[in-house]
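User: Hi! I have a protein structure encoded as tokens and I'd like to know what sequence might fold into it. I'm fairly new to this, so please keep things simple.
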């Protein structure tokens, strides 16, 4: 009796990975999923924090995809290992600080190691030729296979007919005729296939939840590296870059100013790790200070925070400053006027 073949699907939580896994599952292959946690893809994180986004779904899309498919999902933390991909991408960055091609190579390599350890036969991804300008081109797809070391055990079911047959196809584990020839940036073929399978509720078809592809986020990350003098980050840094209004009045410190109540509540979770400011006499934003401010810096920071408070038109606003040791004192400050906050300070 021929044994059932087993495939590991890279599950991002987007439509493409959902469909790719389903296509192979339909051919009688045992499919399990893997989601590599880098820290840069935290779907629903900002929705969960911001009060105005409370109505949006908080689900983890990768887990949701696995549930729709009825498969086991392995979530693997690669935060530390992934840093080298972000710092030193062999193939460079995309439009921002997104090392897309190196990222794909890294994840496929990790998947290749996983299938060797667990007795699986091949790896599935939801890639489509021509869909992404950096990592999903016909000339870069072979690079992923070569540099990851997976060779022809990488199957891309949605565009397989545009590529040379892989080992699973040549060996007859999967029927190449039941695979697809999608290409280009249009998502209509995927949406039509989703409808055929009965999938109506899925993550935005454009997919991609990596904050490194976001211009504003990349600006903040580059600023963090410059301020600290090296290209390092921790998970808390990644999360804090997604929250609040970031203002850098000087190279040695910046403010993270809550934009609304939900963000303020989240930032208060860091109040023992960072110096912070809060307005006392008027309603206003909770604010963290990242860096080493001097006395004059603290007064300026308090004036900036007062500017974003309900007392921005007042002559004086009382602001409480708490240092790293938890010692608090109050300042009476005049709020800065809007024109006194240079655009260059706002990241």
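Assistant: Happy to help. Inverse folding works backwards from shape to sequence: for each of the 347 positions I chose a residue that suits the local structure. Here it is:
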């Amino acid at each position: 009796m021929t044994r059932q073949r087993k495939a590991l699907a890279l599950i991002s939580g987007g439509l493409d990975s959902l469909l790719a896994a389903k296509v192979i599952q339909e051919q009688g292959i045992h499919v399990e999923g893997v989601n590599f946690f880098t820290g840069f893809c935290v779907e629903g994180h900002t929705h969960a924090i911001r009060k105005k986004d409370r109505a949006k779904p908080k689900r983890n899309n990768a887990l949701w995809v696995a549930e729709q498919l009825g498969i086991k999902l392995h979530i693997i933390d690669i935060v530390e290992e992934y840093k080298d991909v972000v710092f030193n991408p062999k193939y460079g960055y995309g439009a921002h600080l997104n090392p897309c091609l190196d990222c794909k190579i890294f994840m496929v390599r990790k998947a290749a190691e996983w299938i060797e350890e667990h007795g699986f036969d091949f790896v599935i991804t939801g890639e489509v030729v021509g869909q992404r300008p950096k990592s999903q081109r016909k000339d870069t797809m072979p690079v992923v296979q070569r540099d990851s070391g997976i060779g022809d055990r990488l199957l891309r079911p949605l565009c397989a007919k545009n590529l040379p047959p892989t080992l699973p196809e040549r060996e007859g584990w999967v029927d190449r005729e039941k695979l697809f020839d999608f290409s280009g940036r249009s998502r209509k073929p995927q949406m039509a296939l989703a409808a055929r399978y009965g999938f109506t509720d899925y993550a935005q078809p454009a997919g991609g939840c990596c904050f490194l592809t976001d211009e504003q986020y990349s600006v903040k990350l580059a600023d963090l590296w410059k301020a600290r003098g090296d290209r390092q980050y921790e998970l808390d840094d990644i999360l804090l870059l997604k929250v609040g209004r970031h203002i850098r009045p000087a190279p040695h410190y910046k403010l993270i100013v809550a934009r609304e109540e939900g963000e303020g509540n989240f930032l208060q979770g860091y109040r023992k790790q960072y110096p912070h400011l809060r307005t006392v006499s008027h309603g206003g934003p909770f604010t963290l200070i990242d860096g080493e401010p001097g006395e004059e810096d603290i007064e300026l920071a308090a004036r900036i925070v007062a500017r974003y408070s309900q007392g921005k038109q007042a002559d004086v606003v009382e602001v409480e400053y708490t240092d790293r040791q938890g010692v608090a004192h109050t300042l009476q400050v005049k709020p800065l006027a809007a024109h006194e906050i240079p655009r260059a300070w706002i990241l």
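A useful reference point when you look it over: The radius of gyration is 24 Å. Feel free to ask if any position seems puzzling.
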